[in-house]
Sequence to fold (509 residues):
Amino acid sequence: MHPRPWRDHLPLGSTFDPRNLTARASLPRAWAETWARHSGAPLLLDAGASGAEQWCSAGELEERTRTLAHGMGRLGLEPGDRVLWSTASSLRAVAANIAALRAGLVVVPVNAAYTERELTHVVGDVRPALAIVDDPDRAALLSRADGDLVVVTPEFEVIGGDAGVTPDAGLGSLVLDAAQPDDVALIAYTSGTTGAPKGAVLTHGNLLANSESIALTWRWEADDRLVHALPIFHGHGLCVALYTSLLVGSSVVLLPRFDVDAVLDAANEHRATMFFGVPTMYHRLAASGRVEELGRLRLAVSGSAPLSAELHRVIGESAGTAVLERYGMTETLMTLSNPYEGERRPGTVGFGFPGVEARVEDDGSLFVRGPTVFSGYFERPAATAESFVDTWFRTGDLGVVEDGYVRLLGRSTELIISGGYNVYPAEVEDVLLGHQSVLEVAVTGAPSEEWGEVVCAWVVPDGASPPDADALIAYAAQRLAPYKRPRRVRFVDSLPRNSLGKVRRSELR
Fold:
């Protein structure tokens, strides 16, 4: 089954050609061209910074990122070197990310809530030449993971490791904005069913095609203003919200975290036109008593997890706006979207972005292909090969096509999506099995109106009496990011298994 063709997203009379999605080679090159034409345009407002609010203009951002990129050269980095980037949302963090891309470095975004165990895995796997953090505690964790790793602040002050270079090293040979479409831009880590996170390799062409197609589909223009309350290390906040804003030259009010009143106050004060969120955020907005204020926006987008049809209805009736749902993955960036013009059908994720093809097999498996789909997993050729059938990427999601719209039915893998974040049971199980009172454990997702799903652990105790549930949750909290931690613990005598010994998780839900 095939959904509606991507051309149905185009404005009337459009002459769009998919080959144009990567015509500008890379986002850094396209950003620089935009900034040169409109150097005085306001781009970023760091609403979380201390002191008076002040907009950073296009010209100021160009100069700031140019200076930081040369700072990377002075640290001896060269194009293709990998840079771990783990920060909270701020202008200084954004500038560091952009500078790295301009210098031709490969950015490795990492969740700022990762524990030492999780950080150690990523550092050991990707072997970064540099780490950028804004928290001394996280810098200490990285230094323990690799004593030779150079750790710096977003302003490139060395706070860990030994750079071992002279102040002017690399400065003369550094060329900005020279990356080509096939050059690697990001390695974004996503968990696998084995519990070991894998790095999805995304090229400059992937990122550029993603932002070009989003801007076209959602009619994103330079006079738009986005209230940004998503984590910037996540694909939704980084590749969708931030990178696309910079591409079209529109402006962003950057909030340090999501808060209902902060979002709506910022939208009103700064005359915002757009807000992007995950279902958990929309759930809180709907319950706030101020949800009608969303009606002042041109566009409200939901993604990273399914938005319930009921919540879609409530917001539509209260605010007079239809939330636009879309679908994407770390490996594919944005692939499907409800239309900007036309019916935004509750419970569906629409059809392919411009240039993206999708199909649903008879067994419900969803496949996609197009210029936004990644090139493979970092140093994992077998996992990469298993993920593709010819040129089609196997998403692992199940769906059905209804009147040209894709409706997701579930996942062929055992992925849990909690608050917009991916949680794979095997990783949580590995941690819980380290507790002396746990003999066996299986992890599933439990429905939650607020979070979409929460993590539920089914535990077979190692002994006559079960361990304390709160103690198990506390044990996990020391080893897992908050969104991965079990919210519920159920004690059982045994786990249901099939004839091959595989746990039947469906019987635990």
The CA atoms of residues 318 and 341 lie 21 Å apart. The two ends are 30 Å apart (CA to CA). Confidence is low (pLDDT under 50) at residues 164-172. The first strand starts at residue 42 and ends at 46.
